[in-house]
Amino acid sequence: MSNVLGLHPDAISDLEEIRRCAGNSVAADIVVALEELETDPNLQANLLDKGFGTDARGHPTANYGVKTWARLWQGGRDIWRLRCFALERRGPNYRVIYAYLRTQQEFLVLAIVPKDSIDYDDPNDALARRIRAAYDAL
Amino acid sequence: MTTQTMRSHAEFELLMTPFETRTERVPEQFNGGAKTSTGPTIAQVLTFPVPGPTRALPTPFTSLSQYVAESEQDVEFKKALSDARKKFALDDRLTTLRHMRLSKGMSQAQLAMTIGTSQPHIARIEAARLDPTYETFDKLARAFEVDIADVVHAFGASKGLATSRDAAP
In order of start, what are the domains of chain A with their CATH numbers? Predict the structure, then answer.
């Protein structure tokens, strides 16, 4: 059985921003990628598989790539990053940042952002701070 | 005991629509040990989609399906979503049921509504965790506007994919 995917209001704002800036087509691609993840238990099982979707050289081996956000993960926050290679092949290059709420077994999307808009290693990065605050409020 | 509140007549009717029907021999102990002159007792077994308790997402999260439903009020975005699903179908190497659905630009929820079942039922069929009945295959064929043999073949492909996934180390 699949788990419901939850969207944080900030992630919804991100999607609306993508609709405004990149167009409905790009935003719809991202929404459908998430929709397929939500409704396919086989795909969803990969969302907690660190390193899923890439080989040792970082080349795609599946349609999705999954990594932890190392700095926050090591700080005890269950936060993951998702790439959709199927989308990247067509152009849009975004990252979906999500948390896994283990007690509820729920995937919670905290942000959907362009690839280069976030510095994962900088604790003072504005987006990183926003995401951390959303996670800490859970 | 779980109390389920039906929000509409349509929802009630959906609940009362069996997922699957099949015929089974009834063991004698369920038939009072009675023997009939016409042979073993045969019963029709109906499987109903009993919804589990709805788990609330933590505040202030919204479910993706709710976001999609609200966004689809915008006709242009609804079309963009349909087009996006068709693009995703192109990524599939096999003609599975998922491929057929996406090729029509449909979400699982939309397909479920079209054939009068629930989204989790569609998810189980696509993941080959459930063998559909002839009636279900027929409904899917009508929804996809293809021959029923194509749907059965696509289900076989879905099942083959699931088997190879399960066998993977």
Answer: 5-136 (3.30.2310.20)
B82 alpha carbon, distance to own chain's centre: 19
- The count of CB pairs under 8 A between chains A and B is 95
- From chain A, the residues in CB contact with B76 under 8 A are 24
Interchain pair A28, B64: CB under 8 A: no
Q: What is the pTM of this model?
A: 0.82
Rounded to a whole number, what is the distance in Å from the CA of A124 to chain B's nearest CA?
Answer: 24
Of A28, A33, A40, the CB nearest to B127: A40
Q: Show me where the domains of chain B are located.
A: 89-167
User: In this model, does residue A112 exceed pLDDT 80?
Assistant: yes
ipTM: 0.94
CATH superfamily of B89-167: lambda repressor-like DNA-binding domains (1.10.260.40)
